[in-house]
Design a protein that fits this description.
The complex is a heterodimer of chains A (475) and B (216). Chain A is an all-alpha fold and 475 residues long. Helices cover 64% and strands 0% of the residues of chain A. Chain A has helices at residues 2-10, 62-70, 75-90, 97-115, 126-148, 150-157, 165-184, 199-214, 222-243, 251-265, 270-280, 288-305, 317-344, 356-361, 366-382, 394-413, 418-443, 449-458, 463-474. The termini of chain A are far apart. Chain B has helices at residues 16-26, 75-79, 94-110, 139-149, 164-215, and strands spanning 2-10, 34-36, 40-47, 56-64, 84-90, 117-123, 152-155. Chain B has a seven-stranded mixed beta sheet with strand order 2-3-4-1-5-6-7, sandwiched between helices. The longest helix of chain B is centred in the C-terminal third of the chain and has 52 residues, at 164-215. The two termini of chain B are 41 Å apart. Classes of the chains: A mainly alpha (475), B alpha/beta (216). At the A-B interface, α9, α10, α12 and α16 of A face β1, α1, β4 and α5 of B.
């Protein structure tokens, strides 16, 4: 038991770093009681839920869940998960999108039911049980990501013809969207009836919102992706709250600005991401505000896909036509350049894919690699030798536990240097934080540098809440 | 607590968002949490219900839509699964009632009557008083239309707050009344399930208990 804990410590980034934003996308939507006092909050702190069914605070701590899962008493759960993952990847080389959705949904129902049978989950309720359910979703989808997220699946299968209809449509729609965005990327805010309160600020916020949204490709878990969507929308909200001419304009201002952000943000694989969320995020987990913002992004995508000159508000057609054609010319040039570049670097092109972006994107995310190796370590831990897929008898369970521990100990000391991983995680976190700090400083040039940093620390470098507070302070 | 989704529809200058902001502001003392987002708001209220000793708590999740004509095609993303729709027009703009009527028609075609409570609301009542009366839509005209279409109807002022709370209260009451049977049946079912579940757990208990003892 104690050795088991030791092993766990090694892939628990919290043991070397006290910040809980290893889950990065952690956010507090509204009214989280975390002002300054959360700076040093314990990672395992739970929030009091006043009303069992109406727990508003998105509480999520993946490390906590992993620890709970390492508890000997929950070993049958680990076996169910292992067995499911094993079958998912071995029974068929690729499932259709619909099959995947059903498989995950069915297993989820099954395993959530099993939580009620095994400690430490059995005695949980409210936020803690919810955390475990979230954790399961993240664990499962983290492992199955490369088989379920269309751009990755495309990479795996090599060519778009090898994809089933559902996944192929994701890729095709991503391509359609990208083409439309390229076609109209030059448009000005007033073409969409956006009132420009403060142009300089508007551009900065749009850029920030776009880069927040782009982070959706850095995460595997549906929840983390949703959080990226939300953060992006909150940045827009921050702008509207403080600079819009009419602060109660609501969706009349919000929707056009969201569309504008998508046009300017060159966000890779957005449709694949949305469909992935729809398929694998448990519907019951999507709360009111999240659902609203997801629908809004879908609506904005729909608007762009069907965008043509008649949908724009154009005062000077001559100027518009000029810009439109200049952009076309530029696009053709860019395309040529891209082709030349492709011929030069003959290797690692995803052959026949219209969406090179997504494939290129796969390489840019070292952080995910770390998460990945942590996942695989967790999985190594799971991967004890096993004769049967079901936890049958008690004696059996016990034998396996000790076998598992030995096995895991061996694994953890051999191929992966855990010390390195912890450092890497920490370094990347620091880089990311520095980046956030730089962005915020450029957005609020008149504000004291240290003050901005204090706000960042207090809000754990979550961009949405940070922007919100800084706006209030700058008023 | 009961939760209802309410969608806001209406032309861009009719002040539909202001009505909701007024509602949320004026209800701040009513009950705990509310969310004020750019275009999403939530607010809980209490209503008195017949045959119930305690007040019924209702949470509205309010979805705002973009009112400009060019964004009209996005509306279905917003009103799907809505329990109620607030269709707002401007009492001082004749055209805005025409737009409101087209929203009502669309809702009736796409969502269907039984599933949706539609409330027709004329805003900017404060501009229709005193000497400088700017009213362009007669109460009787809108009222007749609402009756013919079987809609709830009232005139409000988001600016002064006149009539605003009552809109949400009556939507809450109407929704509660229409869903009451369903809600009670569900409650009973859940109670039944809970009993069954605990039986299930008990049945399994011996084996689980053994596992625990064995491993710890």
């Amino acid at each position: 038991m104690s050795s088991q804990k030791e092993i766990l410590k090694e892939f628990d980034p919290l043991s070397t770093n006290n910040k809980d934003n290893i889950q990065l996308a952690g956010y507090d939507s509204k009214g989280a009681p975390d002002t300054i006092e959360t700076v040093n909050h314990l990672p395992f702190q739970t929030k009091e839920v006043q009303d069992g069914e109406e727990e508003e605070e998105p509480f999520f701590d993946f490390q906590l869940f992993v620890k709970e899962l390492q508890d000997n008493r929950s070993e049958p759960l680990v076996k169910y998960i292992k067995s499911f993952l094993h079958n998912f990847v071995t029974q068929k080389s690729s499932w259709t999108a619909d099959e995947q959705t059903k498989l995950v949904a069915d297993f989820r129902t099954f395993i959530y039911g099993k939580l009620a049978l095994f400690e430490p989950f059995k005695s949980m309720d409210g936020a803690k049980l919810h955390n475990a359910q979230e954790g399961l979703e993240k664990l499962i989808m983290g492992k199955l990501y490369t088989r379920c997220f269309s751009p990755y699946l495309l990479k795996r299968l090599g060519s778009i013809e090898n994809l089933d209809d559902g996944h192929r449509k994701d890729i095709e729609d991503d391509y359609k969207l990208k083409q439309k965005i390229d076609e109209f990327r030059f448009i000005e805010p007033d073409y969409l009836d956006i009132s420009i309160g403060n142009e300089n600020k508007l551009m900065k916020f749009v850029k920030l919102s776009g880069s927040e949204l782009n982070k959706i490709n850095n995460f595997k878990a549906p929840r983390d992706k949703v959080v990226c969507l939300l953060n992006s929308c909150k940045v827009i909200f921050g702008y509207l709250k403080h600079y819009d001419t009419d602060k109660e304009n609501g969706a009349d201002s919000f929707i056009p600005l969201l569309i504008y952000t998508l046009l300017k943000g060159s966000i890779a694989s957005l449709i694949s991401n949305i469909r992935y969320i729809e398929r694998f995020r448990l519907e019951a987990f999507i709360r009111g505000e999240e659902e609203y913002y997801i629908s809004s992004i879908e609506a904005a995508i729909g608007f762009i896909i069907n965008l043509d000159v008649r949908k724009l508000s154009i005062k000077n057609y001559q100027a518009y036509n000029k810009m439109y054609h200049e952009n076309k010319v530029k696009l053709t040039e860019e395309e040529h350049e891209l082709k030349r570049g492709r011929i030069k670097s003959e290797n690692d092109q995803t052959s026949g894919t219209p969406n090179g972006n997504a494939a290129m994107d796969l390489k840019k995310h070292p952080f995910d690699e770390v998460t990945n190796s942590m996942f695989s370590m967790i999985n190594d831990f799971f991967a004890a030798p096993e004769q049967s897929n079901q936890p049958t008898t008690l004696v059996d369970t016990r034998t396996k536990t000790s076998a598992q521990v030995t096995n895991a100990t061996n694994n953890s000391t051999t191929p992966v240097d855990t010390e390195d991983i912890s450092h890497l995680v920490q370094r990347m976190e620091e880089n990311e934080n520095q980046e956030t700090l730089d962005t915020l400083q450029s957005m609020f040039p008149g504000m004291d540098k240290e003050l901005i940093e204090d706000v960042c620390i207090a809000k754990k470098y979550r961009i949405g809440p940070c922007v919100d507070i800084l706006l209030t302070l700058s008023d | 607590m009961l939760q209802f989704k309410l969608v806001l529809l209406g032309d861009s200058s009719v002040g539909k968002s202001s009505i909701v902001h007024r509602f949320v502001k004026d209800s701040f003392d009513e009950l705990r949490e509310s969310t004020i987002g750019a275009a999403f708001l939530s607010q809980t209220i209490k209503i008195k219900a017949e045959e119930q000793e305690e007040d019924v708590v209702i949470k509205f999740e309010i979805w705002d839509t973009a009112g400009q004509e060019r964004y009209k095609s996005l509306a279905p993303m917003y009103y799907r699964n809505a329990n109620a729709a607030l269709v707002v027009y401007d009492l001082t703009q004749k055209d805005s009632l025409v737009k409101a009527r087209s929203w009502v028609e669309e809702l009736k075609n796409k969502v269907g009557d039984e599933d949706l409570v539609i409330f027709l609301v004329g805003n900017k009542l404060d501009l229709c008083e005193g000497e400088e009366d700017l009213r362009a839509v007669d109460t009787s005209e809108a009222k007749a239309y609402a009756e013919e279409q079987n809609l709830l109807f009232t005139e409000v002022s988001a600016k002064t707050g006149q009539g605003v709370k009552e809109v949400f209260r009556s939507i809450g009451e109407k929704l509660y009344a229409s869903k009451k049977d369903e809600i009670l049946a569900k409650k009973n079912r859940e109670l039944g399930n809970r009993v069954n579940n605990s039986v299930d757990i008990n049945a399994q208990r011996p084996s689980t208990n053994d596992t625990t003892t064995c491993c710890s």
